[in-house]
Structures are given as C-alpha cells and as structure tokens.
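notes to self, project folder thing:

trying the whole complex as one job this time. last attempt i did each chain seperately and stitching them together was a nightmare. three parts in total, labels are on each line so i dont mix them up again. if this works i'll redo the older ones the same way
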Amino acid sequence: MADQIVYIALLIIALSIGISMFRFVKGPSIPDRVVAFDTAGIISISVIVVLAHSFGRLIYVDVALVYGLLSFIGVLVAARYLDRGL
Amino acid sequence: MNVKAVFLTTIFGFLLWLGLTLQVDPYNMAIGGVVALLLGGIFGAKSSWRDLKLTPRSILAVAIWVVVLMIEIVRSTIDVMLRVIAPRVRINPAIVEVKTRLKTKTGRLALASSITLTPGTLTADIQDDRLYIHWIDAQSTDVDAATREIVRKFEKHLEVIFG
Amino acid sequence: MEMTGAILLLLASIVFLVSALGLVRMPDVYNRIQTSTKATTLGTILAMAAVAFLHPDWTPKLALVVLFILLTNPISSHVVARAAYFKRVKLSDRTVEDQLKDKLEG
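result (full assembly):
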C-alpha cells in the first residue's frame, strides 16, 4: 500500500516538472526561463532522493546534493550574466 | 586571530563530514577532525561565522528564530496555495522600501533570506540599510509601516544573534 | 511508519504541483518567483521528512539536504529577482507601487 502511494506521488511530481517545463518553453523573458529551470531542478532533487529510497541506495542522496549544488551555481551564473554580462 | 570563528568553522565542518559519511568509527572521525581543523585554521578567521555572537542568549535566539522561520514557511506555503488555486488570481503587488537596524553583512543576508521565506514577500534588492521588497499583497506603502509589518518579527531575534 | 512517510510524500508532491501551477498562472516574473520559492522549499522539507520516515538511518544526510535547500533557495530567488529587475523586465499591470524605481531615478 505504501509503495503504491509513493508511485502516485512520483507521478504527481513528474507532472509538476512537466508543467514548469511549459513555462520554460513559453517564457516570455529570460528570467522566466531561469526561474522555471530552477524550480524544475529543485523538484528533481526530491525525485532523486525518492529514487534513492526505491532502489535502497544511500549513495544516490549524494547525487541529489551535488545536483542541487550545481543547479544553484548554474542559476547564480545565469543571473550574473543577465546582470552584468559575466 | 579570531578564535570563535575558527572554532565554529571547525565544528561545522566536522558535523558536515559526519553527516556526509554517516560512519562513526574512530578512524573516519579522526580523518574528519583533522581536515576540519585544518580548514577551520586556514579559512575560519575570515568566514561569515565571525559575525555570529556566541552567548547563551544568542543560542536561545537561534532556536527561537528557527522555530519562527519554520512556522512562517508553512504559513507562506498555505498562503501561496490559496492564491494559486483561487479561480481568479488574487494579488495586489508592489515593491516597497524597508529599513533594517542590522549592521553586519551576514545578518542582513539572514534577514533577506528570512523575508523571502515569509508569506507574500520577496527581497529584490539591498542597498546599505534599505531593503526593497516585492510584496504580493501590499498592505501599506509607507516605509515605517512596511518595516513594522515585514522586518520586525525576524529582526528582534537576528539582532541578538548578529548584532 | 511506512504509511506516514508515504502520506508525507503525497503531501510534498501536491505542494510541488502547486508551485508548478503558480509558475504558469502568475502574471509576472516576480510573482512567479514568490510562489515557486516558497512552495518548493516546503515541498523539499516534506519530501526529505518522508524519506526519513521510510529510512530512519538516513536522517543526518537528509537533514543536510534540507539545510542546503534552506540556505540556497532564497538566495537564488533573490538573485534572479534582482537580475530581472535590472534587466527591466516589466512588472505586471496590477502592480500598485514601485519604490525601487523612484529610488534609482530620484
């Protein structure tokens, strides 16, 4: 029973990544796209951790941490580029 | 030499190491301790930890601040959910100016981050002691009234922590 | 134990869904940043708590993920809002006042 609920939750999370990707594609301005990408990135951190639970591997949580770190730096670089052109 | 900052950096690095490795055998702890001490000695004195005060009162203030922040995060998410789900999006946005009494850079950063996590407010810019805040449902555009509404609840704790 | 974790995860997924919907429904960048930051922060906390219920021995590492999200999420939203403002992305028509503009021009 608990497993089924986890699958349903993963489906809903996948749907929300899809919706934020809609904003990423449509976007009108560049900051809109950056925000959509950032949101999708943070949601994927949770997806990776839930997958770590499904596979029963602790090491995947480290993947989530590193992914979060890289997406944070990516957003900072994008914003800095918009602000002053690197 | 700033002993407090070195000490705090070392402790933080050691706890980070323990959390990342999740092994508590003596060998692992010895390696983590040595590396944390080394990093604390090299980088600690100039890190943001030196803005932190270390008194019984400030430790209590950190605890209260974390509790207040958690309550505000839950409140703000419920607030956002109600706004998003409503048939017509209910907003009244404005960018307002507020003042802060905090002096240190780390204190202002903590204040800006706390404000971003409270219901309906987002820090857009900081210039010295003025913060510019995007308010999704502006109650008043007067500087002092907005300051009372947004800043005070965190500032009184952060003042004890950072000064 | 398992059931609590699964229900918390379901709650987290609904919060994520709301943040994505907010991204689509809000009229300008600043409002979108607001909804997405707040909801994803709480959603991540809930999801980590859920996995901590499912695997109690992972708790310290999950707490690190939460700490990391709490530190970085407000900063990245702040940085994007600032960049958007100085890039002169238009505020929505429903904005009542803009004191930062008065400050920069006056």
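what i see at first glance: Chain B has two domains: 3-51, 56-162.
need to look closer tmrw
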